[in-house]
Design brief:
With 424 residues, this protein is an alpha/beta fold. It is 30% helix and 22% strand. Helix 2 packs parallel to helix 9, helix 5 crosses helix 6 and helix 8 runs parallel beside helix 9. It starts with 8 loop residues before the first helix and ends with a helix. Bound molecules: pyridoxal-5'-phosphate.
């Protein structure tokens, strides 16, 4: 598939007059179309709900768009819970899928009425202590161990993952929770990340549906929801085929009808916690080429760096790059596209074939809508960029301002040195 930017060079130039690069920009139209499809894909399931993984793109304006399609918030920390609360997502609109959880955060989630999804059996006691009693509705996270395979290919290695309970533990946990008054149970599992295959959710669903039947048969527990979590991926590289969410929904439906319906469990709600799939393709990092360097390799230095998008630096992840206005030019050059951090891994691309880049050219780094801005940091004194929304009507809205040095130094504001730091 040819990867096309949702922004033209002309539009980018117009935006840059008001908001200098670098910035992340999101495409409202794309977000809405995708959310609509996602809803359609699971419309066969009466209780279906997507809990958007807040950590992927923790921007209230963007999450509010998803709220219009019935999405709740999947939170993993106190501040993410605060964000959910601020946009009116409380009660069953919150899924708290945390791990290594500080006990106060269980208490806070419970106060908001959110659903606590336990990562570990020891947290039954923690929640009881934090909340006085166990909530009536709770969930447990399952980790089958071993390797996760789809047909014959190994997708990931849950046996090495820190998350979730073993099979034996989840049986034990449900038994204890039932004794302690839990009335509605859920099962959650997240076994592979960024899967680009329509078979991931159906394969996972089959595993969880069978587990649900076994848990019900053995413990007579009332399982009301199964949470397939995140992991539905996007095609970062041009050669990958995008997932078809309609086919994924149908695949889950097939196993639902094969396993749950005959077991008399046809009322179970399907939940998801997609982050990447919901936002990833609908965000881009826009950056300007500010330096070129010709040494042992050909370098183009841009005004963004790994502090704006760390996936290439830490995972070696591929992000497609388009030189705006040169979409149809031949890729005659081979470049490393670098940021300015004092870290050699600060490269958005290595040995990338691109058209000739001139200083001042605008680079569009694709698929930064999830796990992009949110993973940002301040190393080398770098400031976080603005986030913008390209609205359906073509307007551009600021949805997070860029950090200023004052923000960067703000945690010194209780010290005398502060006034020197911000005197400019
Ligand atoms: C990160 C995460 C998600 C979202 O994952 P994606 O790959 O972005 O879909 C969902 N649930 C949990 C518990 C997570 O940690």
């Amino acid at each position: 598939m040819i990867k096309t930017p949702f922004l033209s060079k002309e539009k980018a130039n117009e935006i840059i007059k008001k908001y200098p690069t670098p910035f992340h920009i999101y495409d409202e139209k794309g977000i809405r179309q995708n959310a609509e499809n996602m809803k359609k894909a699971f419309s066969w399931n009466k209780g279906f709900k997507e809990y958007f993984a807040v950590k992927a793109t923790p921007n209230p304006f963007l999450i509010n768009i998803l709220r219009e399609y019935g999405c709740g918030c999947d939170c993993s920390s106190a501040t993410e819970l605060m964000l959910a609360k601020a946009i009116g997502a409380t009660g069953d609109d919150i899924m708290f899928s945390s791990n290594d959880t500080p006990i106060d955060e269980f208490k806070y989630c419970n106060e908001l009425g959110g659903i606590i999804n336990l990562d570990d059996i020891t947290h039954i006691d923690a929640v009881e202590k934090a909340c006085g009693a166990l909530p009536k509705k709770m969930s447990c996270r399952y980790n089958p161990g071993g390797v996760f395979q789809i047909t014959n290919s190994i997708m990931d290695n849950p046996g090495n993952a820190k998350y979730g309970m073993t099979g034996a533990q989840i049986f034990e946990a449900f038994k204890i929770m039932k004794e302690k008054g839990v009335e509605e149970f859920g099962i959650h599992s997240f076994l592979c990340s960024n899967t680009v295959t329509n078979k991931y959710y159906p394969t996972l669903a089959k595993l969880l549906f069978q587990l649900a039947v076994n848990l019900r048969d053995k413990l007579d527990v009332n399982i009301t929801f199964i949470n397939l979590s995140g992991g539905v991926g996007i095609p970062y590289t041009p050669d990958q085929e995008p997932n078809d969410i309609i086919e994924i929904g149908q695949g889950v439906r097939d196993v639902y009808e094969e396993i749950l319906v005959p077991a008399g469990m046809g009322n179970i709600s399907i939940y998801t916690e997609m982050g990447r799939f919901m936002m990833g393709p609908y965000g881009a990092l826009i950056t300007t080429a500010i330096n070129e360097k010709h040494t042992h390799k050909e370098y183009i230095g841009v005004d963004a760096c790994a502090a704006n998008l760390m996936r290439p630096a830490i995972y070696g992840a591929y992000h497609h790059i388009t030189v705006l206005g040169k979409e149809n030019e031949r890729p005659t050059h081979v470049y490393d596209i670098t940021g300015s951090l004092c870290e050699n891994c600060d490269k958005f691309a290595i040995n990338r074939r691109l058209p000739e880049i001139k200083i001042g050219d605008i680079l569009y780094i694709h698929d930064t809508g999830a796990h992009g801005f949110s993973m940002g940091y301040n190393y080398n004194g770098k400031l976080r960029s603005a986030e913008l929304l390209l609205c359906e009507n073509g307007d551009v809205k600021l949805i997070r301002r860029a950090e200023t040095p004052k923000d960067y130094f703000s945690t010194f504001d209780c010290f005398d040195i502060y006034k020197n730091l911000i005197s400019e």
